[in-house]
Amino acid sequence: MAKFKFKVLKKDGYARKGLIETKRGNIKTPAFMPIATQGAVKFTPIELIEQIGYELTLSNTYHLLLRPGLERLSKVDGVSEFMGWNKPVLTDSGGFQIMSLSKLRKISEEGVKFQSHIDGTSHFLTPENVIDHQNIIKSDIQMVLDECIQYPESYENVKKSMELSLRWAERSRIHYTKNKSKIYGAQFGIIQGGVFEDLREISVSEIVNLDFEGYAIGGLAVGEGHEKMIEVVNYTAPQLPEDKVRYLMGVGKPNDIIEAVYRGVDIFDCVIPTREGRHGIAYIGSSSINIKNSKFESDLTPLDEGSDYFVSKKYSKSYLNHLLKIKDPLGPMLISLHNLNYYFNLMTDLGMSIEEGRLDTFREDFYKDN
Fold first, then answer.
1. pLDDT tens for each residue of 327-344
2. Cis geometry, peptide bond prior to residue 152 (ω within 30 degrees of 0)
3. So which residues are the catalytic ones?
């Protein structure tokens, strides 16, 4: 198995500053992962992602299985080399697609059968073969197969789903342990249970007993809203082992991240910086602006006058508004890069605040500007 270590370097309340060590490089936490679902961060060259300072990206096992396919990835050093990244990669197992592609899948005890949304071919994912697939992808952090359930959902259905995810997690860990000498990366378990505290407690207890290298809080950012999300994180994160990475999947907006870091979460991923960037939304200070708005047509000030990043200080709001209006791909790319730099700086500032014991002040100042 590849080298994988995590240590907490500093704490401020529940918040942690740490370091993840992998074969492909180290990741300072708290950290945010840009999304390279199919081996590409949309509209953003990987060299520029690296220049910003990112140390970890996220790809998706299900989507990579379809395109480019495991055969092509087996001929290189996995997806990291394939996309010219050569740094650590975390891969989601396909559990989110169980929810997002619900019309194209059928769940059984054995696993989940998907009908490809591309060409209609059938693909069957099991807790075991998802590990084998991620080994070919050579992800440094591999997520177990789970069922991500929609919100809102009844207690009975969430309980049934959580219990299935627990059985799959046990099978995943058994397969991983049996093949550990050939496994490329670390394996993370996923906590489910919806918005029900007792189900989350059961999931934590059972998943932690399987002794994964790290733990994710799954099943959030699916429509429950900020307050409910933070409520779940508030009672879930403290139950997770102190010496293991804590990952909040699919989150989120800047205030989601700040509040989750405050409660002890280490790593995050979300499509927001690039997806919203492609639609003209730029994050500045503690809020965001829509560059498509007509009020920016004549605004010749830089996108963010307070930023040192070349995109943010070089290009005017008026010019970016023009690029979006003429549908030139340069516009979405520049705003996506601006947002990714904003998110990277947010994580850096959070880490420094923890290091210096002033996270409370950082939070107050952030919200004061809102």
1. 999 999 999 999 999 999
2. yes
3. 92, 269
